[in-house]
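sry for the spam today, last one i promise. C-alpha coordinates for design, 297 residues
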Protein backbone atom coordinates (compact mmCIF):
# COMPACT_ATOMS: atom_id res chain seq x y z
CA UNK A 1 0.00 0.00 0.00
CA UNK A 2 2.87 2.38 0.85
CA UNK A 3 4.01 2.56 -2.76
CA UNK A 4 0.41 2.73 -4.00
CA UNK A 5 0.56 -0.33 -6.25
CA UNK A 6 -0.02 0.12 -9.95
CA UNK A 7 0.03 3.92 -9.48
CA UNK A 8 -3.63 4.07 -8.50
CA UNK A 9 -3.28 7.65 -7.34
CA UNK A 10 -2.77 10.83 -9.40
CA UNK A 11 -3.15 14.51 -8.72
CA UNK A 12 -6.86 14.43 -9.41
CA UNK A 13 -8.86 11.84 -7.49
CA UNK A 14 -10.75 9.57 -9.83
CA UNK A 15 -13.67 7.26 -9.30
CA UNK A 16 -13.28 4.08 -11.29
CA UNK A 17 -16.46 2.49 -12.61
CA UNK A 18 -15.32 -0.60 -14.51
CA UNK A 19 -18.24 -2.91 -15.30
CA UNK A 20 -20.67 -0.36 -13.92
CA UNK A 21 -23.47 1.41 -15.74
CA UNK A 22 -23.51 5.16 -15.17
CA UNK A 23 -26.87 6.94 -15.27
CA UNK A 24 -26.34 10.67 -14.83
CA UNK A 25 -24.08 10.89 -11.79
CA UNK A 26 -25.27 7.65 -10.15
CA UNK A 27 -23.33 4.39 -10.01
CA UNK A 28 -25.55 1.40 -10.83
CA UNK A 29 -24.15 -2.02 -10.02
CA UNK A 30 -24.76 -4.68 -12.65
CA UNK A 31 -25.39 -7.99 -10.87
CA UNK A 32 -26.03 -11.49 -12.05
CA UNK A 33 -28.30 -14.01 -10.36
CA UNK A 34 -30.26 -17.16 -11.05
CA UNK A 35 -27.57 -19.62 -10.12
CA UNK A 36 -28.61 -23.25 -10.45
CA UNK A 37 -28.64 -25.03 -7.10
CA UNK A 38 -28.14 -28.83 -6.98
CA UNK A 39 -29.52 -30.93 -4.15
CA UNK A 40 -26.94 -31.22 -1.40
CA UNK A 41 -23.90 -29.21 -0.28
CA UNK A 42 -20.47 -30.54 -1.22
CA UNK A 43 -22.15 -33.29 -3.25
CA UNK A 44 -19.57 -33.50 -6.04
CA UNK A 45 -17.28 -36.48 -5.67
CA UNK A 46 -13.89 -35.47 -4.38
CA UNK A 47 -14.98 -31.92 -3.45
CA UNK A 48 -13.61 -30.85 -0.09
CA UNK A 49 -14.92 -28.28 2.34
CA UNK A 50 -13.38 -24.82 1.93
CA UNK A 51 -10.72 -23.61 4.31
CA UNK A 52 -11.83 -20.89 6.70
CA UNK A 53 -10.55 -17.55 5.33
CA UNK A 54 -8.26 -15.65 7.64
CA UNK A 55 -9.64 -12.56 9.38
CA UNK A 56 -7.18 -9.98 10.75
CA UNK A 57 -7.64 -9.52 14.49
CA UNK A 58 -6.30 -6.82 16.74
CA UNK A 59 -4.80 -7.74 20.14
CA UNK A 60 -7.52 -9.35 22.21
CA UNK A 61 -9.10 -11.09 19.24
CA UNK A 62 -11.21 -8.14 18.10
CA UNK A 63 -12.63 -8.26 14.56
CA UNK A 64 -12.43 -4.88 12.77
CA UNK A 65 -15.77 -3.35 11.81
CA UNK A 66 -16.19 -3.71 8.06
CA UNK A 67 -14.01 -6.77 7.54
CA UNK A 68 -15.91 -9.70 6.01
CA UNK A 69 -15.78 -12.79 8.23
CA UNK A 70 -16.76 -16.43 7.70
CA UNK A 71 -18.35 -19.01 9.99
CA UNK A 72 -17.25 -22.64 9.82
CA UNK A 73 -19.68 -24.81 7.79
CA UNK A 74 -20.35 -27.53 10.36
CA UNK A 75 -23.63 -28.96 11.67
CA UNK A 76 -24.20 -27.62 15.17
CA UNK A 77 -21.20 -25.28 14.87
CA UNK A 78 -20.89 -22.11 16.96
CA UNK A 79 -18.70 -19.33 15.52
CA UNK A 80 -17.93 -16.28 17.68
CA UNK A 81 -16.67 -12.89 16.49
CA UNK A 82 -15.76 -10.15 18.98
CA UNK A 83 -16.28 -6.45 18.24
CA UNK A 84 -15.30 -3.33 20.18
CA UNK A 85 -18.47 -1.18 20.08
CA UNK A 86 -18.99 2.40 21.28
CA UNK A 87 -21.95 3.60 23.32
CA UNK A 88 -24.69 5.48 21.46
CA UNK A 89 -23.65 4.40 17.96
CA UNK A 90 -25.72 2.02 15.87
CA UNK A 91 -24.06 -1.01 14.30
CA UNK A 92 -25.40 -3.29 11.58
CA UNK A 93 -24.55 -7.00 11.39
CA UNK A 94 -25.55 -8.96 8.29
CA UNK A 95 -25.30 -12.75 8.03
CA UNK A 96 -25.97 -14.61 4.82
CA UNK A 97 -25.25 -17.94 3.18
CA UNK A 98 -22.40 -17.93 0.67
CA UNK A 99 -23.88 -18.37 -2.79
CA UNK A 100 -22.36 -18.78 -6.23
CA UNK A 101 -19.02 -19.73 -4.78
CA UNK A 102 -18.26 -23.10 -6.32
CA UNK A 103 -20.29 -25.08 -3.83
CA UNK A 104 -22.89 -27.60 -4.91
CA UNK A 105 -26.23 -28.12 -3.25
CA UNK A 106 -28.76 -25.81 -1.66
CA UNK A 107 -28.89 -23.99 1.65
CA UNK A 108 -32.72 -23.77 1.63
CA UNK A 109 -32.96 -26.23 4.54
CA UNK A 110 -29.89 -24.96 6.43
CA UNK A 111 -30.74 -22.94 9.54
CA UNK A 112 -28.03 -20.70 11.00
CA UNK A 113 -29.11 -18.13 13.62
CA UNK A 114 -27.33 -15.01 14.88
CA UNK A 115 -27.08 -13.61 18.42
CA UNK A 116 -25.35 -10.65 20.03
CA UNK A 117 -23.85 -11.32 23.47
CA UNK A 118 -22.49 -8.83 26.01
CA UNK A 119 -19.26 -9.15 27.99
CA UNK A 120 -21.09 -11.03 30.78
CA UNK A 121 -22.31 -13.71 28.36
CA UNK A 122 -25.92 -12.49 28.28
CA UNK A 123 -27.77 -12.68 24.97
CA UNK A 124 -29.09 -9.16 24.27
CA UNK A 125 -30.12 -9.42 20.62
CA UNK A 126 -31.26 -12.15 18.23
CA UNK A 127 -32.07 -12.82 14.60
CA UNK A 128 -33.57 -16.28 14.07
CA UNK A 129 -35.32 -16.43 10.73
CA UNK A 130 -36.41 -19.65 9.07
CA UNK A 131 -33.98 -21.97 7.30
CA UNK A 132 -32.30 -20.56 4.23
CA UNK A 133 -32.99 -16.91 5.09
CA UNK A 134 -30.38 -14.25 5.97
CA UNK A 135 -30.08 -12.73 9.44
CA UNK A 136 -29.72 -9.04 10.41
CA UNK A 137 -29.15 -7.36 13.78
CA UNK A 138 -29.18 -3.59 14.27
CA UNK A 139 -27.65 -2.77 17.64
CA UNK A 140 -27.02 0.42 19.67
CA UNK A 141 -24.87 -0.33 22.76
CA UNK A 142 -25.80 1.24 26.09
CA UNK A 143 -22.17 1.13 27.13
CA UNK A 144 -18.85 0.94 25.33
CA UNK A 145 -17.54 -2.60 25.58
CA UNK A 146 -16.54 -5.74 23.71
CA UNK A 147 -19.57 -7.58 22.34
CA UNK A 148 -19.72 -10.95 20.58
CA UNK A 149 -21.65 -11.98 17.50
CA UNK A 150 -22.52 -15.67 17.78
CA UNK A 151 -23.50 -17.54 14.61
CA UNK A 152 -24.92 -20.96 15.42
CA UNK A 153 -26.04 -23.76 13.16
CA UNK A 154 -29.26 -25.04 14.75
CA UNK A 155 -28.48 -28.73 15.05
CA UNK A 156 -32.08 -29.66 15.83
CA UNK A 157 -33.80 -27.70 13.04
CA UNK A 158 -31.11 -27.38 10.39
CA UNK A 159 -31.19 -29.74 7.42
CA UNK A 160 -27.44 -29.63 6.86
CA UNK A 161 -24.54 -27.18 6.78
CA UNK A 162 -23.44 -24.38 4.49
CA UNK A 163 -20.72 -21.67 4.49
CA UNK A 164 -21.91 -18.43 6.09
CA UNK A 165 -20.45 -14.92 5.92
CA UNK A 166 -20.77 -11.95 8.28
CA UNK A 167 -20.49 -8.28 7.28
CA UNK A 168 -20.52 -5.46 9.85
CA UNK A 169 -20.86 -1.70 9.51
CA UNK A 170 -21.68 1.50 11.34
CA UNK A 171 -25.10 2.96 10.56
CA UNK A 172 -24.88 6.37 8.86
CA UNK A 173 -28.01 7.58 10.64
CA UNK A 174 -26.17 8.12 13.91
CA UNK A 175 -23.82 10.49 12.09
CA UNK A 176 -21.16 10.29 9.43
CA UNK A 177 -17.99 10.60 11.56
CA UNK A 178 -15.59 7.64 11.79
CA UNK A 179 -12.34 7.36 13.71
CA UNK A 180 -9.69 5.83 11.43
CA UNK A 181 -6.09 4.82 12.16
CA UNK A 182 -3.54 3.73 9.63
CA UNK A 183 -0.63 1.34 10.06
CA UNK A 184 1.95 1.78 12.77
CA UNK A 185 4.91 3.51 11.11
CA UNK A 186 7.41 1.56 13.23
CA UNK A 187 6.02 -1.94 12.81
CA UNK A 188 4.01 -1.33 9.61
CA UNK A 189 1.32 -3.45 11.22
CA UNK A 190 -2.39 -2.78 10.87
CA UNK A 191 -4.26 -1.58 13.93
CA UNK A 192 -7.90 -2.20 14.74
CA UNK A 193 -9.20 0.99 13.13
CA UNK A 194 -7.38 0.50 9.82
CA UNK A 195 -10.62 -0.84 8.33
CA UNK A 196 -14.10 0.60 8.78
CA UNK A 197 -17.42 0.45 7.00
CA UNK A 198 -20.39 2.82 6.88
CA UNK A 199 -23.89 1.53 6.09
CA UNK A 200 -26.16 3.96 4.22
CA UNK A 201 -29.65 2.45 3.69
CA UNK A 202 -31.60 3.40 0.59
CA UNK A 203 -34.27 5.12 2.71
CA UNK A 204 -31.67 7.85 3.32
CA UNK A 205 -32.01 8.81 -0.36
CA UNK A 206 -35.82 8.82 -0.42
CA UNK A 207 -37.13 11.58 -2.69
CA UNK A 208 -33.73 12.33 -4.26
CA UNK A 209 -32.43 11.55 -7.74
CA UNK A 210 -28.70 11.59 -7.04
CA UNK A 211 -26.32 11.18 -4.13
CA UNK A 212 -22.64 11.73 -3.46
CA UNK A 213 -20.54 10.96 -0.40
CA UNK A 214 -17.85 13.52 0.34
CA UNK A 215 -15.03 12.06 2.42
CA UNK A 216 -13.43 14.82 4.52
CA UNK A 217 -10.05 13.72 5.90
CA UNK A 218 -8.15 15.55 8.70
CA UNK A 219 -4.57 16.75 8.23
CA UNK A 220 -3.37 14.09 10.69
CA UNK A 221 -4.50 11.17 8.50
CA UNK A 222 -3.49 9.72 5.14
CA UNK A 223 -6.31 7.53 3.78
CA UNK A 224 -5.66 4.67 1.36
CA UNK A 225 -9.02 4.17 -0.37
CA UNK A 226 -12.77 4.40 0.00
CA UNK A 227 -14.65 1.61 -1.81
CA UNK A 228 -18.33 1.65 -2.77
CA UNK A 229 -20.59 -1.42 -2.50
CA UNK A 230 -24.26 -0.73 -3.34
CA UNK A 231 -26.61 -3.70 -3.08
CA UNK A 232 -30.25 -4.70 -3.50
CA UNK A 233 -32.30 -7.87 -3.77
CA UNK A 234 -30.30 -11.09 -3.53
CA UNK A 235 -27.08 -9.29 -2.67
CA UNK A 236 -25.11 -12.06 -0.96
CA UNK A 237 -23.52 -13.20 -4.25
CA UNK A 238 -22.12 -9.74 -4.85
CA UNK A 239 -20.84 -9.19 -1.31
CA UNK A 240 -19.16 -12.61 -1.25
CA UNK A 241 -17.30 -12.04 -4.50
CA UNK A 242 -16.64 -8.28 -4.30
CA UNK A 243 -16.79 -7.02 -0.71
CA UNK A 244 -13.15 -6.91 0.38
CA UNK A 245 -11.40 -4.21 2.41
CA UNK A 246 -8.22 -6.23 2.92
CA UNK A 247 -7.04 -6.50 -0.69
CA UNK A 248 -4.35 -4.11 -1.93
CA UNK A 249 -6.33 -3.26 -5.05
CA UNK A 250 -10.08 -2.71 -5.19
CA UNK A 251 -11.76 -5.88 -6.52
CA UNK A 252 -12.66 -5.82 -10.21
CA UNK A 253 -15.81 -3.83 -10.89
CA UNK A 254 -15.81 -2.04 -7.52
CA UNK A 255 -15.77 1.78 -7.78
CA UNK A 256 -13.36 3.54 -5.45
CA UNK A 257 -11.56 6.79 -4.78
CA UNK A 258 -7.86 6.86 -3.95
CA UNK A 259 -6.11 9.40 -1.71
CA UNK A 260 -2.78 11.19 -2.23
CA UNK A 261 -1.43 12.72 0.98
CA UNK A 262 -2.46 13.57 4.51
CA UNK A 263 -5.65 15.62 4.57
CA UNK A 264 -6.67 14.70 1.00
CA UNK A 265 -10.45 14.53 0.53
CA UNK A 266 -12.48 12.51 -2.00
CA UNK A 267 -15.95 12.28 -3.55
CA UNK A 268 -17.77 9.09 -4.62
CA UNK A 269 -21.13 8.61 -6.33
CA UNK A 270 -23.86 6.44 -4.77
CA UNK A 271 -26.88 4.64 -6.22
CA UNK A 272 -30.03 6.15 -4.66
CA UNK A 273 -32.05 3.00 -5.47
CA UNK A 274 -29.86 0.72 -3.34
CA UNK A 275 -28.39 0.25 0.11
CA UNK A 276 -24.71 1.21 0.12
CA UNK A 277 -21.63 0.23 2.11
CA UNK A 278 -18.70 2.66 2.15
CA UNK A 279 -15.52 0.75 2.95
CA UNK A 280 -12.83 3.07 4.32
CA UNK A 281 -9.19 2.01 4.57
CA UNK A 282 -6.57 3.96 6.52
CA UNK A 283 -2.92 4.24 5.48
CA UNK A 284 -0.85 6.33 7.93
CA UNK A 285 -1.76 8.56 10.85
CA UNK A 286 -5.11 8.88 12.59
CA UNK A 287 -8.15 11.10 12.94
CA UNK A 288 -11.90 11.54 12.59
CA UNK A 289 -13.12 11.17 9.00
CA UNK A 290 -16.38 12.98 8.23
CA UNK A 291 -18.67 11.54 5.56
CA UNK A 292 -21.08 14.13 4.19
CA UNK A 293 -23.97 13.18 1.94
CA UNK A 294 -24.84 15.56 -0.88
CA UNK A 295 -28.33 14.77 -2.23
CA UNK A 296 -29.74 16.12 -5.47
CA UNK A 297 -33.38 16.52 -6.55
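last one done:
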Amino acid sequence: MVERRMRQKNANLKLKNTNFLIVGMVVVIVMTSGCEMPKSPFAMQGQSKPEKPSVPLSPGGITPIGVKSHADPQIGNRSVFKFNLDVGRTYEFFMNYVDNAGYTGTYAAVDDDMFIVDSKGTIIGTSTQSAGLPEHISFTPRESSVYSILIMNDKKESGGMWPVMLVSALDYEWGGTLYIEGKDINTQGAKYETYNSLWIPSRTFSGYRSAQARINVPETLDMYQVRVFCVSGDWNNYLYSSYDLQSVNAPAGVPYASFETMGTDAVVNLDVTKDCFLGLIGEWGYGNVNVELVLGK
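The radius of gyration is 19 Å. ok im logging off now
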